[in-house]
Amino acid sequence: MPMGFLPIHGIILLVVCSLSLLPPSASSDSRLLPNRPLTVGSTLISDDGTFSLGFFSPSNSTRNNNYYVGIWYNQIPKDNIVWVANRATPITDPSSATLTLTNTSNLVVYGTDGQLIWTANISAPGNTTSAEATLENTGNFILRTSEGFILWQSFNHPTDTLLLGMDFRVTHNTHALQRLISWNSPQDPSPGSFSYGADPNEFLQRFIWNGSRAYRRSPVWNNYLIVGSYMEIINSNIYLTIHRIDDEIYISYGVAGGSSSSTVNIKMDYSGKVKILMWESNMLEWDVLEAEPNHECSTYGYCGPFGYCDNSEPIVACKCLDGFEPISNTDRSDGSSSKGCRRKEALRCDRENSFLTLASMKIPDKFVYVKNKSFDECTAECASNCSCAAYAYANMSTTAINGDETRCLLWMGDLIDTEKLVGQGENLYIRVNSLSEKRSHILKITLPVLLSFLILICMCLLWICNCRDKQRNKQIWKEMISRGLSTSDELVDEKFPFISFRKIVLATNNFSSSNMLGHGGFGYVYKGTLQCGKRIAVKRLSKGSGQGVLEFRNEVILIAKLQHRNLVKLLGFCIHGDEKLLIYEYLPNKSLDAFLFNSNKRPLLHWSIRFNIIMGIARGLLYLHQDSRLKIIHRDLKPSNILLDAEMNPMISDFGMARIFYGNQQQGNTNRVMGTYGYMPPEYALEGMFSVKSDVYSFGVLVLEIVSGSKISSMLMTEDYPNIIAYAWSLWKDGNTKDFVDPSIVESCSLDETSQCIHIGLLCVQDNPNSRPLMSSVVSILENGDTSLPPPKQPIYFAERNNGPYEAAEAPVDSANTMSITELEGR
Ligand SMILES: *[C@@H]1O[C@H](CO)[C@@H](O)[C@H](O)[C@H]1NC(C)=O
Ligand SMILES: *[C@@H]1O[C@H](CO)[C@@H](O)[C@H](O)[C@H]1NC(C)=O
Ligand SMILES: *[C@@H]1O[C@H](CO)[C@@H](O)[C@H](O)[C@H]1NC(C)=O
Ligand SMILES: *[C@@H]1O[C@H](CO)[C@@H](O)[C@H](O)[C@H]1NC(C)=O
Ligand SMILES: *[C@@H]1O[C@H](CO)[C@@H](O)[C@H](O)[C@H]1NC(C)=O
Ligand SMILES: *[C@@H]1O[C@H](CO)[C@@H](O)[C@H](O)[C@H]1NC(C)=O
Ligand SMILES: *[C@@H]1O[C@H](CO)[C@@H](O)[C@H](O)[C@H]1NC(C)=O
Ligand SMILES: *[C@@H]1O[C@H](CO)[C@@H](O)[C@H](O)[C@H]1NC(C)=O
């Protein structure tokens, strides 16, 4: 947020004053005049009030305040800076800094003692004292001579943001190529490592670079050098157009439906994403312009030569193109060691070579563009040269500027950075040995016959399977027992249903992405409807997640036996080849974090609901720790693992990391510390020791989060409080618990109850496990309103450090996001 400019009412006052002194037509608030420099604290404001230009400081810390000259949106509270003049040369002492229009019509930023900080490098000849610079309503800062001739404009010198009306040059015939260059960090506008622009050789694709290396590449433009009106629709808000001015090609963007009320701009973000930022009904939202950058697999060249990133499967992973195999045997879904793929069979170059068609591909990079070839000519071009490994072709739908309607692309070397897309992309034709093609020809004839046989057999099998589901159920249990679960023989209950894979595939529409509810380190969660109409949630453990069989058995056996209204109900399970699936009842309100950490939904959680949630979690935990026949430590309590039913009753879920204690065992320890930072007690995070008191700690954190409506590692508080434990303690110490309560409910809640909950929360997060209460005491205090609680001591451990990821406060809140699991090795 820009600081160091007058608050808005001050500006209005200024405007009013200047209006009353000057003739109305000469209001100078959007103009910079020669020898009337702009100083820190004053701003230019565009006529319609949308943009301001002036000095700002992006950092909040009191030390090290760097000042910059920039342009920002007035109405948007953050991410609002659209242009920076001196991004690489900050002003450290703003007291005498100025932005000056010199009498030689140059724009200059001076620092202390007239030190030159930045200049627009204009040297207009002679008599130009009448030039002036205006901040337009578009956000363009234009320097004109008195004759109206434009000497310089900020739109020709973009920093990290594209604005409406701005032309962004993507070829370099007579001018330098332009790129958007990210900030270094949210507080530092100096040029960061990511930049965005077009492939300088053939303008067919857009790139994000990390330094000088390609980082992501957009799918190839379907049309090339089209007259005026060609556009690419990006989403419902925005389209890109390409057009020609003189000898150069430019990109600009437009807002769909001409809705001028919404403010949209495009930013090369410091995190490596090109974002579309939209300001609508007082909310700043963003979308990603360039191909989904959320999974590593779409990073440039990630899958190696002749490999491709398959987006068409629920679990996005690297694969080899048809006819190719991995070079190394390491797990390619991990990809980190991916060396790419090689041909299964060496290519014999002869006239008989043929081409295999791969549809819906983001075609590889490093092509050769052969002009003016029809499809057949393009095929012949590739066939005639043994080095040609593949080709692609698109006939353009509109008349091209140079009269060439064709687009024949050839690959002479490796095929790199290929992706399989969903519902878009092009045909890629790969060269293969003719024999394999003949083989596939034979297949084409025999396949239908084979298929019909297979279908018949399948139908028979399904019929048989259906009858045997129950028997299979028994078998699976026996199998599980024989795999070393003998200690828990007594747990095995044959009535617990095995649900066939086929039924799950039907229920979830073959795990379609529209049924996906979320994902995390373990795999994906889908919603579905069984044939009988029952709604279910299916947890599909990912094959490569590493937390497979063990956790699976754990969860099935545990939950099968547990029955409590505050524990999620497992309806069944399925093992099918590599697939491991858990079937739960479907809870329409998703998880607690989806409410608690969403500023729109948080106010819906009234105090009575929150108290009921705290109470429910406490009862569920008490059952786990004491009241079931076993002692169970959950080990991963956090808001995303608390599901909410239709009446907002909490249900504890996700027993993948739970441990059972037998007999009188009080404490366990482990070499594999798994859990989520912020919710792990110190003795567990540091030494791997866990007991029922570990869950009590996590419960304490949950209680503090529920009362305050903030995440454990939230950055919303000032720098003095790295997390809410420290914040709660500080307020508690001063007897001021009211300030800790979520502002959206503080007016309507019972301060006695919130204060008691904060007290309990602080007792539960004590560093020493012995100082934390048992869940039985917690439940009894909550039920009876007991006020004779011991005072808490200051929690030191987590209060003094902040282990939360920095993005914690910024990340969009959905349960998928917070399901990630932190794993530490060893002690
Ligand atoms: C700066 O402080 C203001 C108010 O204290 C806050 O709203 C804003 O988010 C902070 N900005 C940054 C970049 O920390
Ligand atoms: C322009 O400004 C410089 C210094 O700022 C001054 O020395 C010079 O006389 C000025 N020229 C005119 C024509 O005003
Ligand atoms: C102005 O010119 C100098 C020297 O040619 C150059 O280093 C500087 O980057 C230029 N400044 C701008 C804003 O173009
Ligand atoms: C500058 O402009 C004024 C009037 O606009 C004119 O009288 C004067 O001769 C001009 N000087 C030069 C050096 O062009
Ligand atoms: C960008 O490049 C730098 C230096 O090569 C590297 O350390 C960093 O991890 C890269 N960032 C991403 C997101 O790939
Ligand atoms: C395209 O090729 C055809 C022959 O294949 C030729 O007649 C025509 O002039 C070419 N057009 C261009 C623009 O080169
Ligand atoms: C491209 O497509 C248009 C319309 O579909 C067709 O008229 C034209 O002949 C095609 N051009 C080539 C070179 O195939
Ligand atoms: C095949 O393509 C390569 C690479 O473009 C080129 O060097 C070679 O001359 C071509 N060979 C023939 C026979 O056209």
From TrEMBL:
It catalyses: L-threonyl-[protein] + ATP = O-phospho-L-threonyl-[protein] + ADP + H(+); L-seryl-[protein] + ATP = O-phospho-L-seryl-[protein] + ADP + H(+). The chain crosses the membrane at residues 445-465. SUPFAM superfamilies: alpha-D-mannose-specific plant lectins, Protein kinase-like (PK-like). It comes from the Eukaryota. Keywords: ATP-binding, Cell membrane, Disulfide bond, EGF-like domain, Glycoprotein, Kinase, Membrane, Nucleotide-binding, Receptor, Serine/threonine-protein kinase, Signal, Transferase, Transmembrane, Transmembrane helix. Residues 511-789 form the Protein kinase domain. Residues 29-156 form the Bulb-type lectin domain. Residues 1-27 form the signal peptide. It is a single-pass type I membrane protein. One of its GO terms (cellular component) is plasma membrane. GO terms for molecular function: ATP binding; protein serine/threonine kinase activity. SMART domains: B_lectin, PAN_AP, S_TKc. Its EC number is 2.7.11.1. It is found in: Cell membrane. Belongs to the protein kinase superfamily. Ser/Thr protein kinase family. This is Receptor-like serine/threonine-protein kinase.
